[in-house]
Design a protein that fits this description.
By secondary structure, this protein is of the alpha+beta class. The chain is built from two helices and two strands, in the order E-E-H-H.
Length: 91
């Protein structure tokens, strides 16, 4: 079975996706909840910042964009989603 979540925000429970591309229309899930507490907050930003400061690399939880290195891009993802009060939506 195959299901494409990327074509509409309503395809995920709670419509909790963001439009990342207008042409073609693509939606993506939020990232940044490093400690899995259900919200992206200052704790997640600090953990990501500390990992970037220690040049963490490889398959680590603070690598939010999946490029195998924790850097400014990952910090910005965590910070922007924290500023947007991103939280999990559960049934």
């Amino acid at each position: 079975m195959s299901y494409d979540f990327s074509t509409a925000a309503a395809k995920a429970y709670g419509n909790n996706m963001i439009n990342v591309d207008a042409s073609p229309v693509r939606y993506a899930i939020y990232s940044g909840d490093v400690n899995n507490d259900g919200t992206v907050d200052l704790n997640d930003v600090i953990q990501t910042y500390n990992a970037a400061g220690s040049f963490a690399s490889g398959y680590v939880v603070t690598d939010l964009n999946g490029d195998n290195i924790v850097d400014l891009n990952d910090i910005l993802i965590a910070y922007n989603n924290s500023a947007g009060f991103v939280a999990v939506v559960r049934p």
